[in-house]
Amino acid sequence: MKNLSLLMMMLLIFSACSSDDDGGGIKLRDAEEVKEENEASIQDFLSTHYYKMESNPSNPNFDRIVFDSISNGEEAIIDSEFLKTKTVTRNDIDYEIFYLKFREGAASERHPTFADSTLITYEGFTLSNKIFDVSPNPVWFDLTQIIPGFFEIMPEFRGGTGFVENPDGTVTFNDDFGIGAMFIPSGLGYFANPPVGSKVSAYSPIIFTFQLYKSKETDHDGDGVPTWMEDVNENHNLNDDDTNGNRVPNYLDPDDDGDRVPTREEIIINEDGTIEFPDSNGNGTPDYLDESYPLE
């Protein structure tokens, strides 16, 4: 199987396009129409399939979540006590993501943000139950480089306790990490451009099962502002936040307002790690986003 770094590591441009755009001369389908088709397909899958846990010979710590068609009165996924939903808005379209929360994770551990780094094991399925990607061993992923449906569900879970990265590259942890599955409509996945060579068809929903072991807050540009806070318009799309208009999004720009004073020098990082954002001229815009301060 290909690694998720190949299959999920692109925020697909096509998923952000309207039906009037074209990709390489191919007219994209209407996103609302695809959304409705996906909703029906996912609902049908949830109503006609059940889940079961299976031991995993590749990794005893990673019990597989397997889906199968109902044949003998098994409980449908749609009726599971673990099934949750979350509404996510992307490109002015409201999507409903169904996900299974078998275990949230340890209460003492943080919820990752949509922009953090997470250590997970996972499997990716099509709705026809074909596995298109898998990592039975824990691997770190930068959520800013992963499809929206995935990074929107990760904050609903927590990691586990007792996490240790060993010198030989292995990791150890307690059996209290987050365990779940998510059913992602194509508008929050690959839309018209699934990974080349995968078993995923264009405009098709996908499923991921996963275990979350650990998360780390990221600061991609090292300016002292955590990446998730660089989402100025709070739409969970970091690439459309470019305060100084230099075509470098804030989360990758160490001088967010372009005033030639580094962002790190226009904020206050306290000893306990909390951050203050001074507004020295009182105009309602913090100094690090205000190109009019300081005046030369």
From TrEMBL:
It comes from the Bacteria. InterPro entries: PPIase_dom_sf. Residues 1-18 form the signal peptide. Residues 223-296 are annotated as: Disordered. Keywords: Isomerase, Signal. PROSITE patterns: PROKAR_LIPOPROTEIN. GO terms for molecular function: peptidyl-prolyl cis-trans isomerase activity. The keyword Isomerase applies. The keyword Signal applies. This is FKBP-type peptidyl-prolyl cis-trans isomerase. It comes from Psychroflexus halocasei.
